[in-house]
Design goal:
Mean pLDDT: 95
Largest sheet: 7 strands, mixed
Number of domains: 1
CATH class: Alpha Beta
Number of strands: 7
Helix content: 25-40%
Distance between the termini: 29 Å
Radius of gyration: 15 Å
Length: 164
């Protein structure tokens, strides 16, 4: 069974892309390490220095609302995040997650069950997320979206198909 264990970073509702990655860096930072270092700095200054590969964000409603800033996803990917679990996502942000290979999972109320540092289990085979001992079904994704996520993002998938 493919159950993976992840440490949760828990945040609330209406976290916008400018809070996830400050707009003042949009055109000045190009290096992955620099972009990663500024993830969530205005919301949680400890995040970038303490996040570990495989961690997940668990959030309330409307995670990623606002502009279509790609760095609001890539800053999390560059920090090694596996997934974002939220009650809902901004529409463009949801698609940017898929394009970058960061799994957006919609589970209403998940953030109210956890504190930062708690454990989240993800069972990809059973399509479940286990939070505070409760199993939640992961909403189904179209096969094309699953393929993009499994490849690590849209660009990675296209490179695999056209170079391999």
């Amino acid at each position: 069974m493919a159950i993976t264990t992840h440490r949760a970073w828990v945040y609330g509702d209406d976290v916008n892309t400018d809070v996830i990655f400050p707009g003042k860096y949009t055109y000045t930072l190009k290096d992955k390490t620099d972009i990663a270092a500024h993830a969530l700095e205005d919301l949680d200054p400890s995040f970038a220095s303490q996040v570990q590969p495989g961690d997940v964000i668990v959030a309330g409603r409307n995670w990623g609302m606002g502009s279509s800033r790609e760095q609001a996803v890539t800053c999390l990917v560059y920090n090694g995040l596996r997934a974002i679990i939220a009650e809902s996502f901004g529409g463009i942000y949801f698609r940017n997650c898929i394009n970058q290979g960061l799994h957006p999972i919609v589970i209403p109320g998940a953030a109210r069950l956890l504190h930062t540092g708690d454990v989240v289990l993800i069972d990809d085979e059973a399509r479940q997320v286990i939070i505070a001992g409760q199993a939640f079904a992961m909403p189904p994704l179209p096969l094309s979206v699953q393929a993009i996520l499994e490849a690590g993002g849209l660009v990675a998938m296209l490179k695999q198909r056209f170079q391999g």
